[in-house]
């Protein structure tokens, strides 16, 4: 088959989590929404659905406390507020993550300190975290990117040794597990997102989980303007925001929660099929998964060797796009520390605060310290994934990846 013939093939439309084709939304959500509207109680301070969501999510993760909030960013912000860093304290995090997991550090007056990643997984490791710790470190945020857990045995041991709170960003990792224990329950606080493209969704929303009753109260207060609902003499105890989830969001999320386990089982089954279909394809590495881990495939990622596939991930992604297959070479176009908000310290007015309190070493982003980050971003190709993929979708995807590789190796465009 010639490259021209390949490019002339009619694309197949794959299910997308950006619309109904790739989402498990239906009558169950509508029924609970109708109950909310019939009750007339749309705020979670008066309703019951957000409370039910919290109870059932905590039970699912076998953890005592879950608090719902308005977004994944709000979840991260509430977690950082709960550990209550002093202005100028440092929190170690990943430069390969959504900015919504980084800006809350700045809003709480702390300094994000970026660690390098394992280029195979794009996740932090205990070794890369330890390399950037300082006496001013007051917390660690570890992201389970794409649904693949970080190496939590070593990271938890490091956090315990250094007596540092460990926040897990599980926005892409519902029911991912390490040694059969779900992520979110392994560190000090776990944070989840219910945004449109996550494993389950209510459009926007978040969940925070913890074993610690003191931290749970801090989180619940923070998402409620620090007003002590139910206290004998409630007050606004500290500076906080309104990050509440509405009853409408809670109803949709509650219905979605009943579909989570089946949806993840489908994602895993179809991902394993694609991995089998791509086995042995030159220049392609399928997701690396530790035997201790359960990968839940928020997205399916490939690592592309540019020495074997001319043009690497960018060229391969371009051909896949011509087949109607959405994809994202590099995942994010640049590490977080190259984004203007960090690079230019564009925070509050012209103050640059809290960067004005940072150690010079904490805000020095020398490329040689981030070899894993730059290697990971240069090689990764991210493919969309959702619970509605069928065998024929996966087979089409595998066929087109194989054809695209052959096209590039034959000198095609």
CATH architecture of the domain at 27-258: 3-Layer(aba) Sandwich
Report strand order across the widest sheet.
1-9-8-5-4-2-3
CATH topology of the domain at 27-258: Aspartate Aminotransferase, domain 2
CATH superfamily of the domain at 27-258: Type I PLP-dependent aspartate aminotransferase-like (Major domain)
* Regions with little confidence, pLDDT below 50 for 5+ residues: 1-8
| Proportion in β-strands | 5-15%
Structural class per helix/strand content?
A: alpha/beta
Ends: how far apart?
A: 14 Å
Radius of gyration: 22 Å
- Major β-sheet, in short? 7 strands, mixed
Q: Please report the number of helical segments.
A: 14
Number of strands: 14
Class of the domain at 27-258, according to the CATH hierarchy? Alpha Beta
Mean of residue pLDDT? 96
Helix content class: 25-40%
């Amino acid at each position: 088959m010639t490259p021209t013939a390949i490019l002339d093939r009619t694309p197949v439309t794959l299910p997308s989590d950006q619309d109904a084709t790739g989402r498990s939304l239906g009558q169950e959500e509508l029924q609970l929404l109708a109950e909310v509207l019939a009750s007339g109680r749309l705020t979670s301070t008066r309703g019951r659905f957000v409370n039910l969501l919290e109870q059932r999510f905590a039970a699912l993760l076998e953890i005592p406390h879950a608090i719902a909030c308005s977004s994944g960013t709000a979840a991260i912000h509430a977690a950082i507020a709960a550990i209550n860093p002093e202005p100028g304290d440092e929190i170690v995090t990943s430069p390969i993550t959504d900015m919504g997991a980084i800006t809350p550090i700045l809003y709480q007056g702390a300094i994000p300190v970026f660690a390098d990643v394992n280029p195979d997984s794009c996740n932090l490791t205990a070794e890369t975290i330890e390399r950037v710790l300082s006496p001013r470190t007051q917390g660690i945020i570890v992201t389970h990117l794409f649904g693949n857990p970080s190496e939590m045995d070593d990271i938890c041991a490091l956090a315990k040794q250094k007596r540092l709170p460990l926040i897990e960003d599980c926005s892409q990792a519902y029911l991912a597990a390490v040694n059969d224990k779900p992520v979110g329950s392994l560190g000090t606080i776990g944070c989840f997102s219910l945004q449109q493209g996550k494993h389950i969704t209510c459009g926007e929303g978040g969940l925070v989980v913890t074993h610690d009753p003191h931290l749970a109260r801090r989180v619940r207060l923070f998402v409620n303007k620090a007003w002590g609902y139910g206290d004998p003499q409630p007050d606004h105890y500290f500076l906080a925001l309104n990050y509440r989830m509405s009853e409408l969001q809670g109803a949709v999320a509650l219905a979605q929660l009943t579909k989570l386990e089946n949806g993840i089982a489908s994602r895993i089954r179809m991902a394993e099929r694609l991995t089998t279909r791509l086995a042995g394809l030159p220049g392609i590495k399928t997701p690396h998964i530790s035997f201790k881990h359960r990968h839940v495939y928020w997205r399916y990622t490939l690592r592309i060797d540019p020495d074997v596939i001319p043009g690497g991930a960018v060229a391969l992604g371009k051909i896949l796009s011509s087949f109607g297959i959405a994809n994202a070479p590099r995942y994010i176009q640049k590490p977080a520390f190259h984004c203007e908000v960090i690079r230019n310290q564009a925070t509050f007015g012209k103050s640059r605060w809290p960067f004005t309190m940072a150690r010079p070493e904490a805000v020095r982003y020398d490329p040689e310290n981030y070899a894993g980050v730059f290697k990971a971003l240069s090689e990764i190709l991210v493919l969309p994934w959702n619970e509605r993929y069928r065998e024929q979708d996966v087979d089409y995807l595998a066929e087109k990846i194989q054809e695209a590789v052959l096209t590039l190796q034959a000198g095609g465009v």
